[in-house]
Amino acid sequence: MFDDQEEDKKVRNKIIRLIKGSLFATITPAQFFSQKCSHALAGFTSDINTLLRVLISRSEIDINIIRDYYFKETKNDIKTDIKNEYNCRNN
């Protein structure tokens, strides 16, 4: 019985991820990557791998657009947030 509940939970979680992915596909790539950066910097610990992957894989023009979307979403400068996160973790 518990195996069925666990399997149902896994299927529901996969469906939710697919729906979220579909919704993200309706926004611009810059908005998508801005949200990725925001989520990577949010919470108790940052997700440095996601943050690096976004910043390394995008062109300079894309990063400027991502920075603008990041500011619209968070009202913070992404450079400042990254510096603050890095400094807090290394002091």
What is shown here, in short?
82% of the residues lie in helices and 0% in strands.
Overview of this structure, please?
The chain has 91 residues and is mostly helical. It has a single domain (2-90), classed as Annexin V, domain 1 (Orthogonal Bundle). It is built from five helices and no strands. It has helices at 2-25, 29-41, 48-57, 60-74, 78-90. Helix 2 runs antiparallel to helix 3 (48-57) and helix 2 crosses helix 4 (60-74). The protein is globular and about 45 Å long.
Task: From the structure above, extract its key features.
mainly alpha; 5 helices; single chain; globular; Annexin V, domain 1; 91 residues
Through-space gap between termini:
49 Å
CATH topology: Annexin V, domain 1
Label the structural class.
mainly alpha
Please report the first level of CATH classification, the CATH class. Answer: Mainly Alpha
Radius of gyration: 16 Å
What multimeric state do the chains show?
single chain
Using the 3D structure, state the CATH architecture.
Orthogonal Bundle
Number of helices: 5
Could you outline the blueprint of secondary structure elements for this entry?
Elements lengths: L1 H24 L3 H13 L6 H10 L2 H15 L3 H13 L1
